[in-house]
Amino acid sequence: MEKRELLFKEAITLIENSTPLKESILYHNIYTVNMNGVYPFSTREDVLGLVKFLNLVY
């Protein structure tokens, strides 16, 4: 869980024009999305990809 906290904190700092929606999407994808016991956003690279997506789309 500690690793997830570090990933979340780093992601929050990298979000451009942070909004509650972006923070919620980050939170849920880092902490709660779990597919068959595997978190799809569990590495720094995965989270940076999500941040990049959020910065482009929202």
Q: Mind explaining what this structure looks like?
A:
This protein is mainly α. It is about 70% helix and about 0% strand.
Strand percentage lies at under 5%
Low-confidence stretches: none
Shape label = globular
Helix content: 55-70%
Characteristic key phrases:
58 residues, mainly alpha, 0% strand
Short description:
This protein is mainly alpha-helical. It contains three helices and no strands.
List the helices and strands and how they pair.
Elements: H1 2-14, H2 20-32, H3 44-57
